[in-house]
Amino acid sequence: MDGSRRITIQTIADEAQVSKSTVSCYLNGRTEKMSAETRERIARVIQKYDYRPSAAARLLTAGRSCLLGVVVCDITNGFANRLVKGIAQVCRESGYQILVGTSEYDPDAELLHLERMAGMKVDGVILQPTGQPDASLALLRRAGVPVVCIDSKPEGAPLWVATSNYRSTFDAVSACLRMGYTRCLLLSAEPGLLTSRQERCQACLDAAAQAGAPCHAELIGADTPDSEILRLASQGGGRTLVFVPNCWLLPKVFRALAPLHGEIPARLGLLGFDNEEWAEFSVPSVSTIVQPALQEGASTAALLIDNLLGKPGIPQNATLACEIRLRGSTSGG
Questions:
Q1: pTM above 0.70, yes or no
Q2: Is the distance from CB of 207 to CB of 170 less than 8 angstroms?
Q3: Residue range 76-80: average pLDDT?
Q4: Backbone torsion region of residue 234, taken as left when φ is above 0, otherwise alpha when ψ lies between -120 and 50, otherwise beta
Q5: Could you report the per-residue pLDDT of 105-152, keeping only the tens digit for each?
Q6: Structural domains of the chain in order of their starting residue, each with its CATH number
């Protein structure tokens, strides 16, 4: 075959002396109305040029792109990495490719990603919302793009997959308080409208109240000086349990508390979320509530794809259980 010549469906049609629509019917297996001679003529030309139709073109003709959009809050986060890995595994097995964007917790960036993904004709979207995603959900509805929210249960989202944030936090904080800690220090990023943050913070407050332990809550962020975190942890009498509900803040708090590591777990306890890549191996090892991120990503992708394929009896949402791993930072290991 002449490598300089681009072979198209029109090329096949011209040489076989048939129409493009006849070749298209042949390629899609609709040959019942064709004569044997026409079928053989098309087959000879296709074999001559070793013609393979563009999969993308065929999918677009059928109204499908086999592309799914994925928007997460922070792609550098280990939890988000595992979410995307779980999504990618299921998509690959189902014949889908993914486009990944990161919003950096910025609603405008989230909207921009979704606008561009809708413009690229993705079949569906998996969204880790930055907050209450009314504008994002409205945009996708207008574009006719199905969406499943992940790691959050925002009001108005028809489909979502999340983890047992409240129950797991309540159980973990309660277990630590039973080890003899007499007060809680909740160090959290702004809960805002993120349901996962709200549930974790509320669960800590409720567990402390049930145990009769005072709980002091402080908002911190990436720019909070280590000295301020150290000051907060040094206040108050008795044994203090420090709870960090944000997985991206736990490493910062652990480093800031370095001058007090010798007092862990006797006077000071530390409990956080995820960070399994280092929490088990640090000194002291850190107690964590571990989300099944890989499973959560896979379950979300499966839920979206099953809905796209119109499978009957599909659940509208799912809550996956977390695992509590108590280690040296709370006398748990």
A1: yes
A2: yes
A3: 90
A4: alpha
A5: 899 999 999 999 999 999 999 999 988 789 999 999 999 999 999 998
A6: 9-53 (no CATH), 67-163+293-321 (3.40.50.2300), 165-291+324-330 (3.40.50.2300)
